[in-house]
Amino acid sequence: MATVRKKTAPDNTSMQNNVFEGISAVFAVDGGFTFDNSGNLSLLGDNAKLLEFPCSEDSGFSFDTGAPSIEHFKVHGLNADWVSTFTPGDTELSIEIPCHDTEIMQLVFGSQGTNISINLPLDALKDTAGKTTATATGKGFGAAQKSVELGLLILDDTEKRLFYIKKAKLTAQVTFDGSNKPLCVVLSGSLSDSGDGAFGILDIETAA
Amino acid sequence: MANDTFLYKIFNDLVGAAEKTGKPVYLERPKSLKSEVTQFVVVSLPAQIYGMVKGGLGFRSGSNGLFSVYCKAKTDGTMNVNAQSNLVQRVLDLFPIVGEAVEASNPAILMQGNDGYGYQVTQITFKLRTIKS
User: Could you report the predicted ipTM of this complex, rounded to two decimals?
Assistant: First the structure.
């Protein structure tokens, strides 16, 4: 873009291509990612597949590498720190998934679930003329909270950039408070791999 | 390109994208046309374009853009929902638009109805961000 305002400093406008803004899609992979020998990130395991998480529009996704806490050591007569040390901040990750898709439930609860069938009285329902039975079927899950390790891929809203998290340990929570918000599966946790390549923002190029 | 200004480049990107629908594209609803046009798209920038960082518009600016999709009403004056929904879908399928000067994303639809001149209009607003070209 032509600069509207003349700048004397080195041109930084090319940096505006390196802005990750908005979320188009969030994909999760059971077990996270691993690097192969040439440094390429690859999906873990032959049967690993990407599962798209719908995320709430409002604050459905948040990631934070954590604010460090700084400890200042002073000496008399000097206002600047003599030395300062810091404690690394807590990485935090939270995803709100406003649906109860069976594949998502199985992934985040780390269990296949149990087949459940409940017979319902017909007069509890509408449009039952001519019907004789009503049955609700689906999966049930244990309420005990367990952690799962997931890798995450986040596409920005132009789908030209990819933000990845190699491995995060997340615990699922189901919330439903009868408000405007539907039943949500909320994942919260932190990075479980903070080494090289723990997270990154990549450019997407497609080729024929 | 005929014009190197940043506003021109934004319009150029958006018009270029809208032309992929195969329908005529205007920058405003034409007052008169020589031959009858049953469907067309209007590209406009009705919202403020603001700098997203300190220092003015030179680095990443943001705004909202608007595609107005016009489809001629049926002979009784009611909406041709078939043509309207098809053309709206073709416009939605353009997103996300990544041009030379802008990125456009997050389309939202408002079905506005009759424009009073024999067409029904659907407004498609979207988020606009400038990029380095």
Answer: 0.78
